[in-house]
Design brief:
With 348 residues, the chain is α+β, with helices and mostly antiparallel strands. The protein is 45% helix and 18% strand. The protein has 2 domains: 175 residues, Gcn5-related N-acetyltransferase (GNAT) (Aminopeptidase); 150 residues, Oxo-4-hydroxy-4-carboxy-5-ureidoimidazoline decarboxylase (UraD-like, Orthogonal Bundle), CATH 1.10.3330.10. The protein is elongated, with a radius of gyration of 24 Å.
Length: 348
């Protein structure tokens, strides 16, 4: 099979690819042998797909087909990342699954592989189930599986099974801006913290408390639980939640994509473009510094479309408030920001 996409060409794995494929898989998982769900498989004994860009091999997927077991994507690796090879390989695998009579495409990845989990969720895959503790059995088959991810320090413990219905050769991946609530409810805690962190700019201890409140079932339940937890946080954790957000008026390059839009930089990319804008920016910087000296944490507010000039009097009021009351107000504002972000991501 040969499939072309913008700048990416997908073809079948060929014998001449074996050494390259062995090196690619081994670089990502210690050796090419793949242990999952208590079974040890050699991906190079299976069918595969190769992604090419400008004649160079940039990605590989291997597939495992079993009667009644669906169409399993056993391995998927793109190198270098960011070429679109991973998406093109996943799209092609989905189409092949449908064309060969399978009802679903599925795969497993480990709980610590946060980038992979985000990649698959953003392309419409659903969390079918989490195989809690399953990696221990696989480690007995492949001892080189480490106990802890050396890059992020997370324990390698569970297998997250993700799936897509195989709808046929015309199947197209759905792009999802934020995971569905049902998927958030099923994710291991570290993956939930990573996914929900985009709503709250991080704040891991708050997010771990939020994860413990699952299941939510609806977006409204998630936000209601977040509000209750934020109001009950110990002061130290409330400060962590508030300080996860950037300053109002922070340098555009220093803020997240969502904060960039919220602070109006998409409409006003240069706050120093004219004299008045420069004056407001300088005043905000002065007030932020004074606020942080007085209260010991950042000023947080749900901007809600207000200009930077509109924020100045709000900051001046915050300077005069009692610190405890101001901290609780700021924590509530963080939840309001998250609710607005969630609504906008759903609308995307």
């Amino acid at each position: 099979m040969t499939v072309s996409a913008p700048s990416i060409r997908i073809r079948d794995l060929a014998p001449d690819d074996r050494d390259w494929a062995d090196a690619l898989i081994s670089a990502h998982q210690g050796s090419r042998m793949t242990a999952r769900l208590g079974e040890l498989l050699d991906p190079l004994e299976l069918d595969g797909l190769v992604a090419e860009a400008s004649g160079e091999r940039v990605g590989l997927a291997t597939v495992h087909e079993t009667p009644g077991g669906g169409f399993e994507l056993l391995t998927l690796h793109a190198d270098p990342r960011g070429t679109g090879a991973g998406s093109a390989l996943l799209q092609t695998a989905l189409q092949v699954a449908g064309a060969t009579g399978h009802t679903r495409l599925w795969l497993v990845t480990t709980n610590d592989n946060l980038d992979a989990i985000r990649f698959y969720l953003r392309r419409g895959m659903r969390v079918a189930r989490v195989h809690a503790g399953a990696v221990a059995r696989d480690r007995a088959l492949k001892p080189e599986i480490p106990a802890v991810n050396p890059d992020n320090g997370l324990p390698i413990r569970d297998l997250v099974e993700l799936e897509l219905p195989a709808a046929g050769v015309d199947a197209v991946l759905e792009r999802v801006a934020f995971p569905r609530i049902a998927d958030l409810d099923r994710l291991p805690i570290e993956a939930f913290v990573n996914e929900a962190g985009v709503l709250f700019e991080g704040a891991p201890r708050f997010l771990e408390r939020l994860a413990a409140a699952r299941p939510f079932e609806t977006d409204a339940d998630l936000i209601a639980s977040a509000g209750r937890i934020a109001r009950e946080l110990p002061a130290e954790e409330a400060i962590e939640l508030v300080n996860a957000h950037p300053r109002i008026g922070a340098a555009p390059a220093s803020v997240s994509t969502l904060s960039h839009a919220e602070q109006g930089y998409d409409e006003e990319p240069d706050p120093y473009a004219d004299r008045e804008a420069a004056r407001v920016a300088e005043e905000l910087e002065f007030l932020n510094e004074a606020y942080e000296r007085i209260h010991g944490f950042r000023f947080a507010v749900f901007v809600a479309g207000r200009s930077r000039a509109d924020i100045v009097p709000l900051l001046e009021v915050g300077l005069r408030n009692e610190t405890d009351a101001e901290l609780r107000r700021a924590a509530d504002e963080c939840v309001d920001i998250a609710a607005d972000r969630l609504a906008r991501l759903r609308a995307a």
